Amino acid sequence: MFSKILIANRGEIALRVLRACRELGIKTVAVHSTADADAMHVRLADEAVCIGPASSRDSYLNVAAILSAATITGAEAIHPGYGFLSENADFAETVEAHGLTFIGPTADHIRMMGDKITAKTTMLALGVPLVPGSDGELTSLEQAREVAARVGYPVLIKAAAGGGGRGMKVAQTADELEDAWNMARTEARAAFGNDAVYLEKYMDRPRHIELQILGDNYGNVVHFGERDCSLQRRHQKLLEEAGSPAISAEQRDAIGRTATEALSRMGYRNAGTLEFLYQDGQFCFIEMNTRLQVEHPVTEMVCDVDLVREQIRLAAGEKLGYAQKDITFSGHAIECRINAEDPVTFAPCPGTVAVYHPPGGLGVRVDSALYTGYRVPPFYDSMIAKLIVHAPTREQAIARMQRALDEFVVEGIKTVIPLHRQILDDPQFRKGDYTIHWLEQFTARLQG
Ligand code: ADP
Fold this sequence. Notes:
Layout: E1 4-7, H1 11-23, E2 27-33, H2 40-44, E3 47-52, H3 63-73, E4 77-79, H4 89-97, E5 101-102, H5 107-114, H6 116-125, H7 141-151, E6 155-163, E7 166-171, H8 177-192, E8 197-201, E9 207-215, E10 221-233, E11 236-242, H9 249-266, E12 270-279, E13 282-289, H10 296-303, H11 307-315, E14 332-339, E15 351-352, E16 355-357, E17 364-368, E18 375-376, E19 383-391, H12 394-407, E20 409-411, H13 417-425, H14 427-431, H15 438-447
Parallel strand pairs: 1-2, 1-4, 2-3, 4-5
Antiparallel strand pairs: 6-7, 6-8, 9-10, 9-12, 10-11, 11-14, 12-13, 14-19, 15-18, 16-20, 17-19
Helix pairs in contact: 4-5, 12-13
The structure holds adenosine-5'-diphosphate.
Adenosine-5'-diphosphate binds near residues 165, 208, 235 and 286.
Protein name: Biotin carboxylase
Subunit structure: Acetyl-CoA carboxylase is a heterohexamer of biotin carboxyl carrier protein, biotin carboxylase and the two subunits of carboxyl transferase in a 2:2 complex.
Pathway: Lipid metabolism; malonyl-CoA biosynthesis; malonyl-CoA from acetyl-CoA: step 1/1
């Protein structure tokens, strides 16, 4: 096992990793920008190294500075968290080339899944069903027209290098295809420096269902069931549940078998998530994330597993040590992402937290790096906390989340807590009857 790990991240996820390390008896090194000198992850780590100025490009994405910090502190492994360098194959490779362990999959697998076209062709070859669309990259608008006519409108033009909902444009009809084609490519070129695009049928009422996977270095792969992440705005998740109100245990077993067999054949190791759109009883693979997900806690609650501890153990070369049949599901978990945003316009709202009082009690978990007096910097992601509840049934989890949201005090900045309250009060949400399009229709209705 490692004796010291460097955490190449900030905010709640840096704390999350730090907590797992501490329970394993592993020393931690925090890295931070000048804007984060007072951050909680810096305060709680055994050692901290400043790696650059506020801009992430010069600090949290600064590979040379992070590697120097690891070398001078004698860290043996690097946990990348999510975002920043977590899905950067070159970074993983460089870390390993310096004799350190990257806590995640191999650089080859990160690279393979980072290109969504390669990800889809790989999964198809391994027997995983896909959303209907183009066979790989589209090289001309004419080709896009042919594929769109074959799969039927509406269609989606998507960037091969896409992420965070960027580089994705809908064409409702053939008339809109040229604009969608141009816009998706321009956005992809600007955001990712790569304008390769592909086409998918735009599904009208799917749910976003994803499967949590762990693999060891010896070909053993298990899954921890599904998360329903259909509540999204601008293709960004806001509230997640485990399990999905729409999936039966039999369906979970079936898709779980397909996914674990595929990843075992690939030799996939460490944590990963397969994302599917689910409609009319069919799972259609869209992409794989080769890292820990923001919403991993809902899985931890229903499976009673510490996924970060598992990531560290597996990266250290330990075997999984359990089989699929040993993984059981208990109760229901919900996560609300608390963003420092205006709950109506969603404009980011950085500033000083005048009062911070997180909720507590049975079945309530808050993953956050906030404290009273903390200044939320304007340079990074607006998510400031995750509120997670666990209860025996979905109905009880909803009641628990409502009371936890009522207890949650964050003064001085605006947050999306009021929006979460409205969602949890809504009869359709309470029935579990929603798709990926529901939240945008719901917020439009609220703004009415
Ligand atoms: P990103 O990597 O940018 O997150 P994804 O491929 O994971 O992109 O898609 C993000 C979200 O966009 C999905 O959860 C879903 O809501 C929507 N989406 C993606 N593909 C489709 C599709 N073919 N039809 C309808 N919605 C889609």
